[in-house]
Every structure is written in C-alpha cells, then in structure tokens.
C-alpha cells in the first residue's frame, strides 16, 4: 500500500497522501501493540526446560532422585574433588521440582560443570531432553533419612 523507500510509485492527490499517512500510523500502532505480547511469549519459556546442548566430545552424567541442597553439595564436593583426575564431565541434574534459592546458588557456583533440568525420570521426553541415552552414567541420589526405603 505504501511505497516508503521507493520513489517510482507514489500518491499524487491530497486524499491519497492523507490516506497513506493514516495507513502508516495505524500500521505502526498495531505493530507497537503486538510487541508486549511477543515479549511475554518469549519470557514465558520455562527456566529449567529446554534440551541439553552438549559440546561435541564432552561427556556428561545425569543425576536424579533426592535432589536437595545437602545431597547435591555432598555429591559435588566428592565428584569434583581436586584429588580426582582432571574430570571434564558435565553434571546434569533432573528433578520434578524447581530448585530452591539455596540450591540455585550452589548451581551458579559450579555453573561451568553443572546444569539443572526440571522433569522426571519417568517421562521419556524428559530423558531425551537430558540425553540420558548419550550419558556416561545415570546416578540416583537416595534419601538417607527415609523411614521406609
């Protein structure tokens, strides 16, 4: 309808130019009103969803089960200990609930070697997301305080 940027086709009458100005303003207003909706759609992505993007040649293990601050900190302290050989393994945690703030802080301290995904090991789609079929190991952390194991 408009020829902004092209000079070969243009409106010659005042009515045509007036219509073109209103058409452009309405188009800009409609576009501007859609921007917040687009931002909302982009922002509503689940924080711990998505798929594991594993670098080629980098190994990973999947850890699931009783994921708490205490169990994860003990596990990471042992697994990433300096006495071990140079372990270039990414640790992927899979749990049905999002991590609390304390656990999230622990993950951020080990951000180069640890990732968290929300999901369950009972769902094949979640297992595909963390690429459990390519993992070097799948570990289940047990609740040592459980009354009925």
UniProtKB/TrEMBL annotation:
It is found in: Cell membrane. PROSITE patterns: RCK_N. It catalyses: K(+)(in) = K(+)(out). This is Putative ca2+-activated k+ channel slowpoke alpha subunit. Residues 58-149 form the RCK N-terminal domain. Its main location: membrane. It comes from Phlebotomus kandelakii. Keywords: Cell membrane, Ion channel, Ion transport, Membrane, Potassium, Potassium channel, Potassium transport, Transmembrane, Transmembrane helix, Transport, Voltage-gated channel.
